[in-house]
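Appendix B. One record, verbatim.
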Amino acid sequence: MSRLFGSVRSRATLGATLVVAVALVAAGTAVLLSLRSNLIGEAGTRAERSARAVAAELAARVPYDRLSGLDGDNGPVQIVGRDGGLVAASEDLERISGTATGEVTPKPSAPAPGDDPDDADDGDDPDDGTDGTDGDDAEGSDGSGGSDESLAPGEIARGTTFNNGSATIDGDAEDYRFAAVDVRTLDRGRLTVHAGAPLAAEHGAVATSLTAMLIGLPLLLGVVAGVTWLVTGRALRPVEGIRREMAAITASEDLARRVPEPATHDEVARLARTTNETLAALEASVERQRRFVADASHELRSPIASLRTQLEVAAAHPELLDLDGAVEDTVRLQRLAADLLLLARLDAGERPADARVDLAALAREEAAGRTGVTVDAEPAEVSGSRGQLGRVLANLLDNARRHARERVTVTVRREGAWAVLGVADDGEGVAEADRERIFERFVRLDAARSRDDGGAGLGLAIARDVAVRHGGTLTAGAAPGGGALFELRLPSAGRTRHG
C-alpha cells in the first residue's frame, strides 16, 4: 500500500478524486436541500390555498356540511374552535398529527352540521367570545393558528402557520404539509382552519435524486480517477525517461550521455535541460580532474626519475654524486607537491581566512631581495588569507622575473571600492589569444624553458583560483611600456566577499 501511494501519479490521482468527491458531495447536498425546500414550499402553498378556500367559505357563513374542502379529495382538513376543540374535519379522516389537535371526530358540543346560521347567536353575548375582543385573546394557548391579528367579523388572517405532519384517510397514510389560517366568523366566532397537502412528490423527488447521486457519484469519481491517472501518467512519462537514463548513466559511468529533452516548454522540459547542463558540467569537471591527475603524474615523474637516477649512480659510484642536482630536484618536487596540495584545497572549497591584509606592505615584503623589482604602492587593505595572497604575489613575481628582460614593477592602488595590485614586466608580453589559456593548469607557453626554470605551469592557475576565492579577479594584459601586465582586483576591506 505504501508503494502504491508512494508515487506522484498515485498521489495526484487520489488527491484529485478526493477533491472532486468533496465538491460533488457538497454540491449534491445543496441540490437535495434546495429541491426539498422548494417542493415543501410548493406543498405549503397548496395547503395554504386549501385552508384559505375553506376559511373563505366559513367567513361566508357556509354550514360545515356544505364546505367543499371537507370531502377529503384535496387532503385532510380540520376546523378548530377558539377553545382548541375540533368542530369539523374531512370525511374518512382516521388519524392526524402535526396540527393543533389529534382529534378526528368533532366534539358533541360543537354546532351540529347543518345548523341554520340565522338561528345562531348574533354575537351580542360578551361571553361567547365573538364580540371582537375575547375571541382574539385565545390564540396561542389553544393550539390554533397562533396569529396575533385582531380580526373583524368575516375577516381572514393574513398570516399562515406551517407544520409537517401525517394523516390517514380511508386507510391511506401519508406525510403532509399543513397550513393553519385563522378566520373570524359572524356566527361561530374565531376558528382555525388546518389544511394539508401531500409530501409524496417531495419524498419521491428527493429519493429519486438521492438514488441517482448515489449511483452517479461512484461512476463520476471513477471517470475522474481514470482521467487523472492517464493525464498524470502522460505528463510524468518524460520524467520516467529522465530517471531511466540517469540510472543508465550511473550504471555505465558514461557522462557523455544525455537525458531526453521533451519538445515542450513546461517544467519537465526545463528539468531535462537543467539535468543535461549538470551532466555537461560534471563531465567537464571529471575530464578536468582526469587531465589534472595525468598532468600531475607527468610532472612528478620527471623530478622523481632524475632524483632516483642520481641516487642510483651515487650508490654505485659515490664520487659521481651530484649533490646540488639532487637538492634541486628535491626542492622542485617539494614545490610541486605544495602546489598540488593547495589546488586540492581550493577545489574542495576551502574558504580563506577573514584577516585584514595591506597589499602595499605585502608587495614590499615579497619584493624584498628580488633583483630588478620596484614597488610603487599606496596603502590598500583587503580581507582574506595573508598566506594565500602572498602566494599569489610570489607566483606573479616569479612568472614576471622569468620573462622580464631587466625590470619588474609592482603597483598597488585603490579604485573606488576595489584594491588593485599590478605586476608588469618588460619582456615580450603575452599574445592576446593566450591571455586566458595561461591560467589553465599545466599550461606553459614555453614548455622547455619553463621546465628548466623550475615551473610546472601551476603558478598562474593557483593565483587565479585564490583571487576568485577572495571575491576578486586576476587578468592578463599588456603593460604600458611593453611586456605583460597582470592585475589582481580584490574588494577593499569591509565589502562583502563573494565566491
